[in-house]
């Protein structure tokens, strides 16, 4: 299968009006705890952004801000030029895997239909809804197990169904919280390739929180590294360096590049592989 060229020549100097996600001088504190401060980001349509950093740095909290669930302490966040709000149709969300356990008895097609119904489109009748569910399941390669109980599917199969559900509103922005967790390398690569194809074909911007750097490295455009001593945004080669990570952790960190990807050495608290 050939994947068409990207929808846009990547340029990160985006006009804030056309940006899918805009954070300006954004800070998030919980009481005395300052998770991140002065974050500026304009996300291009079709861009693939990886959010990396140690446990507890504030990566999931960033997704919650974009979902309209947690207010910023300071600054501004907008989705496609509008203020964030819960259930914004332009935003799809793939939650962490454990969120699915309550739905284990459902079938994939039920879960995907919930993604459509939950947004109350007035979609135009049962037949159209059924066709849309079939289309979404086919797009993620889940047609063959569309009627199996979710609880019996493998982690990789469940992840495809979650992605299909998150795409039910044809979002401009897809937020994924550790979608590669507990998948083997082949399934990790399958999920990343699926997301990459989506953003290339439809211009859906992807924001992925992950501890797994190597499976995504060939695809990501930019990295947002959230660390104990600051946040840094840039291309992977700008951010994933010994100098930058040593500065962000204020302790010596070494980034080693091999033919198979990168290894980050020097800290117990760094992303696990
Ligand atoms: N509503 C809240 N009130 C107070 N503290 C909170 C709240 N939400 C999150 N926190 C704290 O903020 C910190 C960051 O949490 P978050 O889940 O964003 O981290 P993370 O970078 O996603 O971590 P992990 O990699 O472990 O998933 C944690 O210490 C968490 O306990």
From TrEMBL:
<keyword id="KW-0813">Transport</keyword>
<dbReference type="InterPro" id="IPR003593">
    <property type="entry name" value="AAA+_ATPase"/>
</dbReference>
<protein>
    <submittedName>
        <fullName>Metal ABC transporter ATP-binding protein</fullName>
    </submittedName>
</protein>
<dbReference type="InterPro" id="IPR003439">
    <property type="entry name" value="ABC_transporter-like_ATP-bd"/>
</dbReference>
<dbReference type="GO" id="GO:0005524">
    <property type="term" value="F:ATP binding"/>
</dbReference>
<dbReference type="InterPro" id="IPR027417">
    <property type="entry name" value="P-loop_NTPase"/>
</dbReference>
<feature type="domain" description="ABC transporter">
    <location>
        <begin position="21"/>
        <end position="253"/>
    </location>
</feature>
<dbReference type="InterPro" id="IPR050153">
    <property type="entry name" value="Metal_Ion_Import_ABC"/>
</dbReference>
<dbReference type="InterPro" id="IPR017871">
    <property type="entry name" value="ABC_transporter-like_CS"/>
</dbReference>
<dbReference type="Pfam" id="PF00005">
    <property type="entry name" value="ABC_tran"/>
</dbReference>
<comment type="similarity">
    <text>Belongs to the ABC transporter superfamily.</text>
</comment>
<keyword id="KW-0067">ATP-binding</keyword>
<keyword id="KW-0547">Nucleotide-binding</keyword>
């Amino acid at each position: 299968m050939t994947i068409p060229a990207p929808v846009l020549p990547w340029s990160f100097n985006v006009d804030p009006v056309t940006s899918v996600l805009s954070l300006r001088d954004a800070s998030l504190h919980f009481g005395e705890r300052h998770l991140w401060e002065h974050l500026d980001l304009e996300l291009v349509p079709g861009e693939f952004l990886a959010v990396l950093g140690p446990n507890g740095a504030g990566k999931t909290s960033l997704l919650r801000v974009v979902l309209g669930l947690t207010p910023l302490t300071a600054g501004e966040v907008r989705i496609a030029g509008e203020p964030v709000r819960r259930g914004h149709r332009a935003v799809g969300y793939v939650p962490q895997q454990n969120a699915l356990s309550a739905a284990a008895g459902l079938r994939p097609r039920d879960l995907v239909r919930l993604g459509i119904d939950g947004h109350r489109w007035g979609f135009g009748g049962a037949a159209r809804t059924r066709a849309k569910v079939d289309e979404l399941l086919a797009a993620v390669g889940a047609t063959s197990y569309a009627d199996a109980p979710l609880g019996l599917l493998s982690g990789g199969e469940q992840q495809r169904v979650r992605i299909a559900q998150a795409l039910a509103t044809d979002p401009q922005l897809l937020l994924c919280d550790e979608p590669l967790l507990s998948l083997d390398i082949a399934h990790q690569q399958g999920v990343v390739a699926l997301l990459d194809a989506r953003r290339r074909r439809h211009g859906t911007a992807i924001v992925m929180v992950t501890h797994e750097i190597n499976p995504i490295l060939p695809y990501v455009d930019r990295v947002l590294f959230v660390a104990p001593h600051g946040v840094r945004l840039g291309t992977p080669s700008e951010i994933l360096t010994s100098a930058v990570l040593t500065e962000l952790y204020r302790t010596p960190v070494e980034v080693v590049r091999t033919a198979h990807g990168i290894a980050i050495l020097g800290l117990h608290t760094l992303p696990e592989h």
